[in-house]
Fold this protein.
Amino acid sequence: MKSQLPGKRHAWLAGLIIAYGAFLALLTALNAFGADRWGPSAFNLYLPQALWLAPVFLLAIPSFHLAKRWIWVLAIFSIWVCGSVMGFCWRLNS
């Protein structure tokens, strides 16, 4: 039985995280070009946008145990969802 190479052990986790990032990029692009123009992106207007944070939590569990360096990427994705996808804005004046 061959042992796996150190860089190839958790390729499935990296693939899932990269696929989630690509999905967020697609969702952001669809929202930017007019979400009411296409069916799937118009359907997204009626969904709770916090739903897109669920994969962060689901991917953080195996990432914390197997590859901790991917936690930073998931943290950036959660900021991306809260900012770009959900439309959260900081109030600059008090």
In short: The CA atoms of residues 35 and 41 lie 5 Å apart. DSSP finds four helices and no strands in the chain.
